[in-house]
Design brief:
Blueprint lengths: L4 H6 L2 H4 L4 H4 L4 H25 L4 H16 L5 H10 L7 H15 L5 H6 L7 H16 L15 H15 L3 E2 L5 E3 H4 L18 E4 L2 E3 L5 H10 L3 E10 L11 E11 L4 H16 L5 E8 L2 E10 L16 E10 L1 H6 L8 E8 H9 L12 H4 L3
Parallel strand pairs: 1-5
Antiparallel strand pairs: 2-4, 3-4, 5-6, 6-10, 7-8, 8-9, 9-10
Helix pairs in contact: 4-5, 4-7, 4-9, 5-9, 6-7, 10-15
The structure holds phenylalanine.
The site of phenylalanine has 11 residues, from strand 9 and strand 10.
């Protein structure tokens, strides 16, 4: 039976959302508007009473605003869910547009309940008996109903550098390489001496080293793990070594004192420079696309001989010349070379029997290229608004 006008007026919002529009005697657009007006007023009143009453502790404050949100927004049995179910879904055809419109307006207004601002707006105050009663009232059905759904934590995602690292790792894993790692706090021996960089050698200055003491550094590259792995496994050896490295660089758009490298190392009885070229060309094409060309130019590293610098044809302009490749058509992507016989020897591997190649690349720069990021600082500022884009 349809309730009388006075009965309808006496009903609480909670009672009303359990009835259909017909049962509530709402038959036209004006009635719909009035009804939704009441709902919004009730919501606003509950929100402002929560804000003005305050809470006795932060935990209490969080609990109060959560129960208000649950009461209105819970997917199951929240007031909005009920309104959707009972008023919108069952409304007669001619009323649908106006119910839909009002419902959307209500939903938008309810979004304010989701915001941190609500929590922050609730003042803290010394607990009194009155406050406790009010709080219990506000909590209302929310806390009593233990079957209400819990809160979902927003799902995070992998950091773009981690994503890039994994993508590179996967290409080498598919080629039969294994992943190896080593310490970030490293001895001068592994970071320099064993890599054929004696103390007097000027090339030591190439790496702006952060020293912990005279014998210990924050590793300046992942190359020391070459030696550690040779000692541990001997030959043959096919590994890649991802990890953090540190240099005394001033932060700017392309430098951070901490950055990521991936080292590659292949040692076997018949490894030649052709293997190095073939593997790195294959890698570049897998990562950046089949159209990519690679270019090898002579370079110098004390731990490889000969040494090379690898560039790929610019992934932005295809080699025509653009802002990113500084009109050269090429982007330098790694250092590489044939492992120096002395380094094999230092790692306990007989250079008469074995030869090898190695490369080192900067993962952060790859991520910047791939995701078109122009400032490396963005990667390490932990700003979720930036990071959630990936
Ligand atoms: N370790 C070198 C660097 O950090 C890169 C490199 C690795 C070069 C392996 C050649 C072979 O600059």
């Amino acid at each position: 039976m349809r309730p009388s006008r006075t009965q309808t007026l006496a009903m609480t919002i909670d009672e009303k959302v359990r009835k259909t529009l017909a049962e509530l005697g709402v038959t036209d657009a004006a009635g719909v508007e009035a009804l939704f007006g009441e709902v919004r007023a009730a919501m606003e009143q509950e929100r402002s009473s929560l804000v003005s009453h305050g809470a006795s502790s932060e935990a209490e404050r969080d609990r109060l605003s959560k129960s208000l949100r649950d009461r209105w927004l819970a997917r199951q049995n929240g007031l909005l869910a009920n309104i959707d179910e009972r008023w919108l879904k069952t409304s007669p055809k001619e009323l649908k547009p106006s119910v839909g419109k009002s419902f959307n307006g209500l939903r938008q207004a309810a979004a304010a309940l989701e915001m941190d601002a609500l929590v922050k707006g609730v003042g803290l105050k010394i607990p009194t008996k009155v406050a406790a009663v009010d709080a219990a009232e506000i909590r209302g059905a929310g806390l009593r109903d233990l079957t209400l759904p819990g809160y979902c934590r927003p799902l995070g995602s992998l950091h773009p550098v981690t994503q890039m690292q994994r993508e590179i790792e996967q290409i080498f894993l598919n080629l039969g390489f294994r992943i190896e790692d080593g310490p970030e706090i490293e001895s001068v021996y592994y970071n320099f001496d064993a890599l054929n960089i004696p103390e007097s050698h000027p090339s030591r200055d190439d790496w702006d080293t952060l020293y912990i003491n005279a014998q210990t550094v924050l590793r300046t590259h992942t190359s020391p793990v070459q030696i550690r792995a040779m000692e541990k496994y001997g030959a043959p050896l096919y590994i890649i070594i991802p990890g953090k490295c540190y240099r005394h660089d001033n932060p700017d758009a392309s430098h951070t004192p901490m950055f990521h490298q991936i080292e590659g190392l292949a040692i076997d009885s018949d490894i030649t420079f052709a293997d190095l070229k073939g593997t790195l060309d294959f890698f570049a094409k897998k990562l950046f696309g089949e159209k990519i060309h690679t270019r090898f130019q002579p370079s110098f590293f004390p731990f490889t001989e000969p040494s090379g610098e690898v560039a790929i044809s610019c992934i932005f302009c295809g080699g025509e010349g653009c802002r990113v490749c500084k009109e050269s058509g090429w982007i330098e992507v790694m250092g590489c070379g044939m492992v120096h016989p002395q380094v094999l020897h230092n790692g306990g591997i007989d250079p008469e029997k074995y030869s090898g190649w190695a490369f080192g690349l900067g993962v952060d720069r790859y991520a910047m290229m791939k995701y078109d990021i122009n400032d490396i600082q963005l990667l390490f500022q932990s700003d979720v608004r930036f990071l959630e884009q990936f």
